[in-house]
Amino acid sequence: MINRELIRTKTVQLTYAYYQNGSKNIDSAEKELMFSLSKAYDMYNYLLALIVGITREARRHLEVAESRAKREGTPMPSQRFAYNRFALQVEQNKMLNDFLEAQKKNWDDEPEFLKKMYTLITDSEIYQDYMASGEDNYAADREVWRKLYRTLIENNPDLDTLLEEQSLYWNDDKEIVDSFVLKTIKRFDEKNKASQELLPEYDSEEDKDFARKLFRATIMNGDEYQHYMSEASRNWDFSRLAYMDIVIMQIAIAEMMTFPSIPVNVTINEYVEIAKLYSTPRSAGYINGMLDAIARHLITTGRLLKHMEERK
Questions:
Q1: Over the Cα atoms of the chain, what is R_g?
Q2: Who's near 123: CB < 8 A, 6+ residues apart?
Q3: Cβ distance 60 to 9 under 8 Å?
Q4: In angstroms, rounded to a whole number, what is the distance separating the alpha carbons of residues 33 and 37?
Q5: Residue 189: CA count within 13 A, CB half-sphere
Q6: DSSP 240
Q7: Looking only at Cα atoms, what is the longest distance across the chain?
Q8: Which of 28, 45, 69, 125 has the highest local Cβ count within 10 Å?
Q9: Residues with Cβ within 8 Å of residue 39, at least 6 apart in sequence
Q10: Burial letters 226-256, b for 16+ CB under 10 A, else e
Q11: What are the pLDDT digits (tens) for 217-226?
């Protein structure tokens, strides 16, 4: 689940913090990076568990409604949402339950938020259409949760605030994690029952090594990489760069120099996108031009053995 986009973003955050806090302990900083990445995986599991929390809240409301119907002799309420087949499968999922047990964490500690989410859902058109639909099968049950997640959970300021209060590491991760939760929902298959596999923390050991190598190369060769920036910036106003811009370019150069299989244009594009989120409005264009110039200078001088297309 922890992909290179997230690793690059976290490396920018932790490298900036490394230089700002002044401790200059690379081992401690690396541990902090890896811990920060693991917290993103915690959020992934926690957000999947939100489906379970809301479903259990639905059952509590159903029990009250059923008791009232029996007492008043009115028709019994539908059990469809409270016993949604996809949500039940998530609730029974072995990997998720192992995680929740190990972390001693679930949504029972947030009853007011669950009530608010349940009301938000039951007031929605998505819910109303689902309850009125004649299509009563597992695929419909899974699809309604995909729609509810995209519409009411993915962009939810109350949830964002709650997550930020629970962990400082979750401030900037939710957008990426949301994409993996939605991917997981689509992958669920009824026949897998409780053994449905969730996404692993890392797709491969190679990605885990990517995080460590990128961070260490950035810090240990920082002076050299900043020298490359100075060499290539003679026609640029390098002195007026925001400090975050320097950090972003330093990491981009580390990636260019350390990972021969990653094309230069991929690296540049990735860090330009990060600059759009973390630096000044003008930084993305400036960094794009600077990294292009730096990469071409390094290739020309034989220090970077990669290929770039000629400028048009």
A1: 24
A2: none
A3: no
A4: 6
A5: 6
A6: G
A7: 86
A8: 45
A9: 167, 169, 170, 173
A10: eebbeebbeeeebeebbebbbbbbbbbbbbb
A11: 999 999 999 9
Report pLDDT digits (tens) over 36-78: 999 999 999 999 999 999 999 999 999 999 999 999 999 999 9
With the C-alpha atoms ordered 269, 272, 278, 281, is the resulting torsion angle positive or negative?
negative
Residues 6+ apart with CB under 8 A from 129: none
pTM, 2 dp: 0.91
Helix and strand tally (H, E) in the chain? 14, 0
- Residue 86: CB partners within 8 Å, gap ≥ 6? 138, 141, 142, 145, 185, 188, 190
Question: Could you tell me the two tokens for 187?
Answer: 């992958």
48 contacts 26 by C-beta, under 8 angstroms: no
Instruction: For tokens 């992909």, name the residue.
Output: 3
pLDDT digits 0-9 by tens, 135-168: 999 999 999 999 999 999 999 999 999 999 998 8
Q: Which of 178, 192, 190 is nearest to 146 (CA)?
A: 178
Query: Which tokens belong to 215?
Result: 């961070």
